[in-house]
Every structure is written in C-alpha cells, then in structure tokens.
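batch_manifest entry 22 of 60
target: Aldo/keto reductase
source organism: Streptomyces xiamenensis
requested by: lab member K.T.
priority: normal
notes from requester: please return tokens only, no post-processing; we will run our own comparison against the previous entry in this batch. if the run fails, retry once and flag.
--- input ---
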Amino acid sequence: MKYRMIGAARVSEIGLGAMPMSIEGRPQDESRSIATIKAALDAGITLIDTADAYSLGDADDAGHNESLIARALAGDPRRDDVLIATKGGHTRPGDGSWG
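--- output ---
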C-alpha cells in the first residue's frame, strides 16, 4: 500500500467508500459490512469515506454509516491510524430521496 501525508496523518492512497453499506440495497447482515471494513484495514487502508446522509433516508436511520464505522473500529487497535473523511449538513428529506 502506498501512503501520503495529510497534515501529520499518514493516509493510504486508496480509501474505502462506505456509502453502499448504509443506503438502499445495503447488506442485511451488518457483520458483512464490518468484515469489509476489517478487510480494508488488513489490506493497509487507513482512509474511510462516510457522511451523515448515508442512510435509508428516514429519521430513525440517520447517521447509520458513521455509527456502523464506529462499531467496526471499536476495540480495534488500528482505529487510531484511520482517518475518517465525513461530510455533514446535507440530510435526506425522509422519503428515501436525496433531495
């Protein structure tokens, strides 16, 4: 894996885009998504992209992707080496659309 510096952080040139783990068509078994995140870490990936809008679009599911990543990294000693790139302020209107 190749890495670059972003400020003082050493970050993999390849990142994991986590959006498909939380939107329509996402895996029904969350353990598959967590295994994917762990496999990315095993491969040397230290950049994970997420957003608060990555969800099914209803209020009960808001922030699903960020919470999923938090659960995957909980207790993992590599979590301090991971840079989470997130975006905020764009929420889904609640009808499943992207607004």
